[in-house]
């Protein structure tokens, strides 16, 4: 896997940390539901805690990165993630583990939108798609390695081993970002009124990509914990069930850079790509709901990965292309609020419906929500005239 722009390499590591941190724990618990004493509903709640913290804090940290520059926000968030993970080594019981997960989510809410803002500000004209694709691909690597790592460490040594490994990786990444990432100075601020903010978040250039991100994240968050649970129900062992999430993550990691390059070359429009991505997500969820089997779990995982890997970089690239540089951090933070809302709501929706009916019925409910997002994406603007709103494109202004 290529890293592309050398200045962005530390950001790829940060993307890996947030993905591995979220999904190693989620998939590990999803595959070990019985051992952890979790029902499907409480599993859904446990998976949502991390994302609920991000929903509350990402817009605030995104705005902070605009005011002081993204680098200190990224480093501070990674240090916070390290501390929270260290506390997780000694956490015991569902309440303590949920508190650790909330603290990890709060820390990730700092370095995740600031990293996205840095990708936007460090890329040259016409290259945002490729670099957001690479950034997403390294996140995908975290999604791929995290579930197997989580299941293995929890099975072999308990949750303390997993949290210790996460603390080590996040601490190393904090050092790399501090040493290697260029300082990105804050830009002169333009005063915005409350009505300006309302117009910005209701404009279709923001709202529709945010809806697409929420739908993709809802599918990812659900699949990470509940796809292994479905795998266990159809007879797969712990590692087989968790491997389905790795298939999803590898498919997403391979897809995202390709989609980004196609977008930058003018061969793939945002609207068409996002609609196709959300359609794949909808069909994959339907298949898992209507024909649950060991084969379906892996096929659905691959289709979900391609769908998520198609919709996500295109949505982020569209936001980068249509946002002034002085408020890119706030825009990314607010967009990720929608994304994390989906990431939290997906497991809660599926877990709640599953508790009342069954897991396949819960997946069917999520497929209907994905179909609604796909319909909304038909109204996205699309075209090569959308150029990235980056510092490289605008000479710092």
Give a short synopsis of this structure:
This protein is an all-alpha fold. The chain contains 15 helices and no strands. The protein has one domain (6-388): MFS general substrate transporter like domains (Growth Hormone, Chain: A, Up-down Bundle), CATH 1.20.1250.20.
Fourth-level CATH superfamily: MFS general substrate transporter like domains
As for the CATH topology, it is Growth Hormone, Chain: A
Task: Spell the H/E element sequence.
Answer: HHHHHHHHHHHHHHH
Q: Give the helix tally.
A: 15
Shape: globular
- Distance between the amino and carboxyl termini: 33 Å
Radius of gyration: 19 Å
**Average of the residue pLDDT scores:** 82
Low-confidence stretches: 384-397
The CATH architecture designation is Up-down Bundle
What would you say this structure looks like, in words?
With 397 residues, this protein is an all-alpha fold. It has one domain: Up-down Bundle (Growth Hormone, Chain: A), CATH 1.20.1250.20. Helix content is 81%, strand content 0%. Helix 1 packs antiparallel against helix 3, helix 1 crosses helix 9 and helix 4 packs antiparallel against helix 7. The longest helix has 30 residues. The C terminus is likely disordered.
What structural keywords apply?
single chain, mainly alpha, Growth Hormone, Chain: A, 81% helix, globular, disordered C terminus
